[in-house]
Amino acid sequence: MNFQAEPVTINTLLSVSKQYFIPRYQRDFSWTKENIDELWSDLVGSIIFTDDGYECDEYFIGTLVLAGRDDSFEVEVVDGQQRLTVITMFISALCRALNETGDVRAAQSTFDTYIKGADRRGTEFSKLDKRSTTDYFRLLVQDLQIHSCSPQSEEDRLVKSAYEQIKKLVNKASLKKAFNVTGSVSNAQYIEFLNILIDLIVDHLKVIRVNVLNSDDAYTIFEILNARGINLSPVDLIKNKVLQEWNSTYPIDFAKDKWNGIVSTLSSRDV
Predict the structure, then answer these.
(1) Are 205 and 10 in contact (CB under 8 A)?
(2) Strand ranges, E, within 86-222
(3) Residue 269 and residue 271: Cα distance in Å, rounded?
(4) Which among 86, 98, 185, 193 is placed 20 to 30 Å from 248, CA to CA?
(5) Distance, CA of 76 to CA of 221 (rounded, Å)
(6) Which helix (H) or strand (E) holds 196?
(7) Per-residue DSSP letters for 84-102?
(8) How far is the C-alpha of 258 from the C-alpha of 252, rounded, in Å?
């Protein structure tokens, strides 16, 4: 198995014209409040307070395993989708906060760089494609404009909870505490804090990017990572194998629909 591994920033990952898609076999988004609070504590802890203002220290957030050629537009996320999803949420929330403060150009530019892209013909695409059964993540997170949308699944409800928590973490009151400010925070200060956090996330967060060339190697690495301590349940591994074997998704992804139905039925039963 051939693969390449190198440390890269979030800017290196998301500023290029690529779409990172999360395959069907991956488990759903599952981060809880505790996971997000831990990441937030580490992010704030990476901000260094100096006499001249603020600096950002580098922060390593783990390994991101991808399948695809360097020149491919679509790249499969084999491992690291939870972190990549949360990072997308943070950048989105920061951009929306900038937009609401009136810094519209910075908000739009940052959003168009890291959340949504466009090809040479102007066709827009999301940098992270979750390929879930609903459009909830795309509507809630991946547009600078706010949409009215309701969660349709348990994953949607976890996404909603996580995004609402992240929005609270980047509001003015929270950043006043994070940046140790006494007294009131002006609009200009708030904009500065938002931009510092964006700089921290895109320029100072680092991952080890591991690239493999094909999906067969991707499945192998996925299972090896689980055997090395990634907290996937036996059900996650069964789902991985079932969807790997039943790879037809057109015109309807029958396998995933059937799997979701089984999960829904079991979840509704009284234990």
Answers:
(1) yes
(2) 116-118, 124-126, 128-129, 205-212
(3) 6
(4) 86
(5) 12
(6) helix 187-199
(7) HHHHHHHHHHHHHHHHHHT
(8) 11
* Element housing 159 (H / E): helix 154-169
Q: What is the pTM of this model?
A: 0.81
Q: At what angle do helices 81-101 and 33-45 cross, to 10 degrees?
A: 70
Q: What is the pLDDT of residues 120-152, one digit of tens each?
A: 888 999 999 988 778 999 999 999 999 999 999
CA neighbor of 170 nearest in space, from 154, 189, 193, 146: 193
Averaged confidence pLDDT in the chain: 86
In angstroms, the CA 101 to CA 107 distance is 10
Residue type, 155: E
**No. of helices (H) and no. of strands (E), the chain:** 11, 10
Tens-digit pLDDT profile for residues 24-67: 777 789 999 999 999 999 999 999 988 888 889 999 998 898 98
The full length of the chain comes to 271
Residue with tokens 């140790």: 180
The percent of residues above 90 in pLDDT, for the chain, comes to: 61
Supply 49's token pair: 């307070």
